[in-house]
């Protein structure tokens, strides 16, 4: 065991930087060692702390086992990737970093098939599970509830599937509830040169629902929306209990009028269009049982759309907190056949 990286002890407390473009990414992470060093600094910003004896200090390093750090005090071995989305993965950490960068910074995202081709991954299943592990890390533990400072638009839309025989209410599509913060920003009118307020979508929350019933809407509101928030929705029965839960609820009768819907809930219309275009364009449809994972990715990307460059660092930080989903969770305990992204909804 030797100290193979001489300057790491001095560098360990420096602020963690992040690449702002693909050229910077290639310079920062040319090889496996650079990725492991970055991940180590991210996990232990104040210096390596042994998980067994809690001693903080520069560990021993094993040249032939680059992921392993050995405590100088108790000789306990700790893997840099243990407890992260890369936990027990045989795939190079460099490939994981590339996957995280592509999925978090590329405008359309990346499908498993495209990731497999770009990174030269042997098996489609490996690329598919890598992306699902990253998606599982996109939901921050104990995340903030939205609507504390800004009013919200709320609605339920249907994703995938088809309406059965044109009968109203009969559909194989999946209901997804969407909440959007309506923020105001100041812009200068190009003609009058006066400053005016313009609405734009703020943070969003999306969740797949088992059905369009009030009990599911209420649970979503309790989990995701700040108490006392102002909410605008249609006057459907599923939203009828929001006032009793303490929200300032304005119900607008729309009766299927799309023009009225677009004018009353304009940001819901924008988010819905973006969501469906993204799913169809990047993945050509997704499997129903994995829909929430894709909704998590859409939320992560949408909420950071103005800070796309640093979303890579955010994803790695979140990924360092969770081991991600397992193979059994992704594919099901008894399902050995791989469900591809294409086709199912």
Describe the structure.
With 345 residues, the protein is α/β, with parallel strands linked by helices. It folds into 3 domains: 1-80, no CATH class; 92-137 and 286-345, no CATH class; 145-277, Nucleotidyltransferase, domain 5 (2-Layer Sandwich). 35% of the residues lie in helices and 17% in strands. It contains 12 helices and 8 strands. It has a 5-stranded mixed sheet with strand order 6-5-4-7-8, sandwiched between helices. Strands 1-2-3 form a 3-stranded antiparallel sheet, with no helix packed on it. A hairpin with a 6-residue loop joins strand 2 and strand 3. It is elongated and about 65 Å long. The chain starts with 7 loop residues before the first helix and ends in a 14-residue tail after the last helix. The relative contact order is 0.14. The model is unreliable at 1-15 and 334-340 (pLDDT under 50).
How do the helices and strands line up, and which of them pair or pack?
Layout (H helix, E strand, L loop, with lengths): L7 H4 L10 H7 L3 H12 L16 E3 L2 E6 L6 E3 L13 H13 L6 H8 L4 H13 L15 E8 L14 E15 L6 E14 L5 H11 L5 E5 L13 E5 L5 H7 L1 H18 L7 H13 L7 H9 L7 H5 L14
Parallel strand pairs: 4-7, 7-8
Antiparallel strand pairs: 1-2, 2-3, 4-5, 5-6
Helix pairs in contact: 4-11, 5-6, 8-9
């Amino acid at each position: 065991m030797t100290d193979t990286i001489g300057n790491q002890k001095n560098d360990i407390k420096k602020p963690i930087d992040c690449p702002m473009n693909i050229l910077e990414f290639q310079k920062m992470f040319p090889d496996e060692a650079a990725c492991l060093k970055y991940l180590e600094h991210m996990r232990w910003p104040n210096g390596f702390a042994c998980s067994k004896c809690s001693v903080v200090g520069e560990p021993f390093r094993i040249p032939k086992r680059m992921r392993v750090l050995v405590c100088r005090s108790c000789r306990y071995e700790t893997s840099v990737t243990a407890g992260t989305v890369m936990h027990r993965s045989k795939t190079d950490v460099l490939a994981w970093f590339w996957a995280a960068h592509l999925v978090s910074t590329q405008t359309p995202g990346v499908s498993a098939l495209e990731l497999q081709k770009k990174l030269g991954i042997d098996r489609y299943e490996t690329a598919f599970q890598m992306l699902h592990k990253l998606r599982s890390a996109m939901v921050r533990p104990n995340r903030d509830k939205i609507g504390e400072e800004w009013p919200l638009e709320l609605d339920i839309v249907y994703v995938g599937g088809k309406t059965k025989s044109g009968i109203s209410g009969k559909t194989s599509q999946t209901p997804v509830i969407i909440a959007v913060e309506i923020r105001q920003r100041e812009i200068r009118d190009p003609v009058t040169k006066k400053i005016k307020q313009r609405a734009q979508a703020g943070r969003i929350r999306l969740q797949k629902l088992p059905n369009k019933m009030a009990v599911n809407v209420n649970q979503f509101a309790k989990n995701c929306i700040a108490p006392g928030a102002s909410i605008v929705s249609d006057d459907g029965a599923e939203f009828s209990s929001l006032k009793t839960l303490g929200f300032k609820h304005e119900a607008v009768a729309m009766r299927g009028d799309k023009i009225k819907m677009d004018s009353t809930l304009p940001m819901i219309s924008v988010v819905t269009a973006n969501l469906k275009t993204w799913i169809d364009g990047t993945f050509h449809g997704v499997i129903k049982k994995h829909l929430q994972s894709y909704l998590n990715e859409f939320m992560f990307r949408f909420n950071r759309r103005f800070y796309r460059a640093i979303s890579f660092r955010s994803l790695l930080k979140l990924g360092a907190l969770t081991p991600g989903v397992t193979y059994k969770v992704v594919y099901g305990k008894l399902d050995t056949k791989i469900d591809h992204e294409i086709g199912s909804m």
